[in-house]
Amino acid sequence: MNTLATGKRPWYNRAHDTNLARDICDGKRLEIPDDTPKFYAELMVIRKTL
Known about the structure:
With about 50 residues, this protein is mainly alpha-helical. It has three helices and no strands.
């Protein structure tokens, strides 16, 4: 969903390594751009809480 909202691969500016995996497991999530349609933003937030 983030790719649709931003046009960029998730975590494009970070190495895809164990540090990133650890951060994601610890709850780090991508920011939702302000211009993301409300429906998509709500889905992204729901997905974060599951």
